[in-house]
Amino acid sequence: MIRTLDDLDASGTAVGVRVDINSPLSGDGDGLLADDARLRAHVGTLSELTERNARVAVLAHQGRPAGDEFMSLSAHARRLDELLDAPVEYVDATFCKAARDRIETLENGSVLVLENTRFYSEENMSFDPVNAAETHLVERLSKVLDVFVNDAFAAAHRSQPSIVGFTERLPSFGGRVMERELEALGEIRDRPSPRVYVLGGAKVDDSIEIAETVLQSGIADTVLTTGVVGNAFLHADGVSLGEETASVVTSRARDRLDLAEELLDRFPDRIQTPSDVAIKRDGERIERSIESLPVEQPAFDVGQETIDTYAEVFETAGTVVLNGPAGVFEDERFAVGTKELYNSATDAGFSIVGGGDTAAALRQLGLSGFDHVSTGGGAALALLTGEQLPAVTALDSGAEN
Ligand SMILES: Nc1ncnc2c1ncn2[C@@H]1O[C@H](COP(=O)(O)OP(=O)(O)O)[C@@H](O)[C@H]1O
Ligand SMILES: O=C(OP(=O)(O)O)[C@H](O)COP(=O)(O)O
């Protein structure tokens, strides 16, 4: 069991808090945040620490080296300053003397945002906790920190130094986001059955692998497919979709379509594919049954019959896990499947939603009422397929040290 903020006497201590505020940027190259959901998620943990009179140094990443969204955290710090009652400063250094000096002179009850951890090469590599503890970032920062709090659930599937290294050197605790996510997602096998996984979106190969894991292990009783994933399963089943749709499928699925075909053979009663789709013809949404395919136009959503069939499955489901939009939700005409399916999933005993684009779809379509909306995409799916997360293993073993 990991220790939480309930186990921490924070007053007067210097606390390093790893958060995941990796966010979509505005796209204008101005480094402004297009969405602050991940920052708002951490407000509880950060406020609790400042109200308890701790000095808080925030560690986080943004983007990946050479990627479009690889940026400084200065805009994140400004937004956190607006969101928190406590004063928030920013320093464009992560672990050098300038950063360490600022941490040492921080006032109790205030926050310092350190620079993007991934500006340093070691942070872009994977380590086991013992070796992560020897990296410059962890070794130097540990000298000026008393305690480490990991609240970065969305990065908990990574083995980077700032995620797994501090637990070897400092008393370490899970933050409130980490605690809530592990509670909601950690014991998926204990959630009521039948458990239904709805796999949509465009990460076709990942979703095919997830389908295999959850069906084989019995974590899921049924897998329903939508989005490009649904079209990929139809394609693997020998349905001739038409050139446009097939080319979206094959551009998204590199080498797992054979596995999809095998899964349809092995679990014929436990995987469902769409019975109809919505295509775009002359700028309009037209619904077509699968039997009437192929068509020239691209299939951008599931059709009403599929929506109704899947909604019936939700009515008797104990747990529904949804990942990935059912269609091109960015276009109102093809948001119908996502809107109606996610809405009816709230009829299930317990509903869990994860995924970056999925969270954006929920906001855009005004969908709510789920039992848990995860801050993580990859991390949530790793947990929901029964994997042990490196961040949690490190917090667990840190608690034993
Ligand atoms: N039928 C479809 N054809 C083309 N794109 C689709 C279709 N269904 C969903 N998508 C696209 O999938 C993308 C989201 O997928 P993904 O990144 O896998 O979701 P998440 O980040 O939630 O895991 C969206 O941009 C959406 O437009
Ligand atoms: O956005 C994240 O993951 P996600 O896209 O799976 O939700 C996390 O910040 C992890 O980032 P990474 O996938 O670059 O390690």
UniProtKB/TrEMBL annotation:
Keywords, comma-separated and alphabetical: ATP-binding, Cytoplasm, Glycolysis, Kinase, Nucleotide-binding, Transferase
GO BP terms: gluconeogenesis; glycolytic process
Biological pathway: Carbohydrate degradation; glycolysis; pyruvate from D-glyceraldehyde 3-phosphate: step 2/5
Positions of ATP binding: E330, G355, G356, D357, T358
Catalysis performed (reactions): (2R)-3-phosphoglycerate + ATP = (2R)-3-phospho-glyceroyl phosphate + ADP
A Pfam family hit: PGK
GO MF annotations in UniProt: ADP binding; ATP binding; phosphoglycerate kinase activity
UniProt-annotated binding residues for (2R)-3-phosphoglycerate: R38, R118, R158
ATP-binding is among the record's keywords: yes
Compartment(s): Cytoplasm
Protein name: Phosphoglycerate kinase
